[in-house]
Design goal:
Layout lengths: L8 E4 L1 H7 L4 H12 L10 E3 L6 E6 L2 E8 L4 E9 L6
Parallel strand pairs: 1-5
Antiparallel strand pairs: 2-3, 3-4, 4-5
């Protein structure tokens, strides 16, 4: 585990917010909680680095996946996709 500063900026792509309107409220609230807590430690939880991309990670939350990039130099976490796990989702 890395010691991380608490001053990460969280950016959420507009497509993620649109996805939230299409999923059941119970899951949306859980995902919202997890996403809002990413700045405290983006390396915590059930995460895996995505192959072929330098900064891309995915976090597993139940049957959903949160995809985000950790830009260490800028201290930015960019959540760019939330997807329900299917045959094409890791």
């Amino acid at each position: 585990m890395m010691n991380l500063p608490q001053n990460w900026d969280l950016k959420i792509d507009s497509s993620v917010l649109k996805t939230f309107t299409k999923i059941p409220r119970k899951y949306a609230l859980t995902l919202d909680f997890v996403i809002k807590n990413l700045p405290s430690n983006p390396y915590a939880g059930n995460i895996q680095k995505l192959k072929g991309e330098d900064e891309a990670w995915r976090r597993r939350v139940g049957s959903y996946r949160i995809f985000y990039k950790i830009k260490t130099i800028e201290k930015v976490i960019l959540v760019y996709k939330v997807e329900r796990r299917g045959s094409n989702t890791y």
